[in-house]
Specification:
- The protein contains eleven helices and two strands, in the order H-H-H-H-H-E-E-H-H-H-H-H-H.
- Helix content is about 50%, strand content about 0%.
- It has a two-stranded antiparallel ribbon.
- Strand 1 and strand 2 form a beta hairpin.
- The C terminus is likely disordered.
- The protein is mainly α.
- The radius of gyration is 26 Å and the shape is elongated.
- The termini are far apart.
Amino acid sequence: MTEAELDELSWFLGEHAQARDGMTLEILDGFLSALVVGPALVMPSEYLPFIWPKGQWQDVEQAQGAFERIIRFWNHIVWRVQASAEEQSPEIEAMLIPCLMLPEKDDGEGEDTDEPDLSDIPDDFPFAFGWASGFLQGVSLRQEHWAAWAETHEDIADDLELIAALAVIDRDHALEMDLPELEPMDFQERFEACMDLPAILLEMNLQRLEDLRPQPARREPQPGRNDPCNCGSGLKYKKCCGAGGQGRVIH
């Protein structure tokens, strides 16, 4: 999706989803990212109500337009994850970063600029909080699968811990989330951590694909050729079931 298309989607969410207690573009990005790279499939009929909890459309055309925008954004996130596996130009690499909101800067004359000076952002600004919160909401739709995944793969557990840290605003919030040992990050730490998000999502997606591969059938241990056959015939294995069909005893 182009910058203009993302801006249009952000406007659409503001007009329709947020007005119904739904998601911003940043929260939606994190939410769909978790569904794209997660260990278990979640169907649109299950996740769409979280985007528009009170979705009442004027007509079928508006509802269809909303669904098409979400699927297009889903495909954009899939492209981002896959593109992270290859060396890209600086322009493309910038597009691989999730949609993270920065505060608008007032130039002193009442006009906001689109590119705020990072040095002016307060240390306690919760950068990527919305994205991380959306991601954890996506995780919650398949909580048991994610928990088992993290228990099996240490890297997944570490990545989830980082995302959880981004979803914490301060110490009181950490206690509310039952994460008393989690140290809240300042803006600079958050910003640096977010530069790793494309790699984190890529690793999760690769692990998901690896886990989907059919596992080779495991052959039961066989006796040695001169050992007693495990069928109980009393013959040596090579003279019985291990004979390969030649001189094999029929029971």
